[in-house]
Specification:
Blueprint (H helix, E strand, L loop, with lengths): L2 E4 L1 H6 L5 H17 L10 E4 L2 E7 L2 E7 L5 E9 L6
Parallel strand pairs: 1-5
Antiparallel strand pairs: 2-3, 3-4, 4-5
Length: about 90
């Protein structure tokens, strides 16, 4: 089981997202906690770098996270529109 850290700024902005996106985000967090950083079953999942990942929650909404090897911590650093995604 992994430990999930959600950036403080992200926590503040979650309630501004559409309800369906919020629900999918929390499902993703559970999958990250239970299965780890690699989530090939999520739409458009891909590795952005050796320790950064992303997937689509809906067509226009993405989540990004990072995980250092040999660590149980996964940090979710972005959830929002794909146009503003940091990649």
């Amino acid at each position: 089981m992994y430990e999930i850290k959600i950036k403080r700024k992200l926590e503040k902005n979650l309630n501004k997202l559409p309800l369906m996106v919020q629900k999918k985000f929390f499902r993703l967090v559970l999958d990250l906690r239970d299965k780890g950083p690699e989530q090939p079953n999520w739409p458009n999942y891909s590795k952005l770098s050796p320790n950064e990942y992303h997937c689509h929650l809906r067509y226009s909404w993405v989540a990004c996270w990072k995980h250092e090897k040999k660590s149980i911590l996964i940090e979710v650093y972005y959830v929002g529109s794909r146009e503003k995604a940091p990649y």
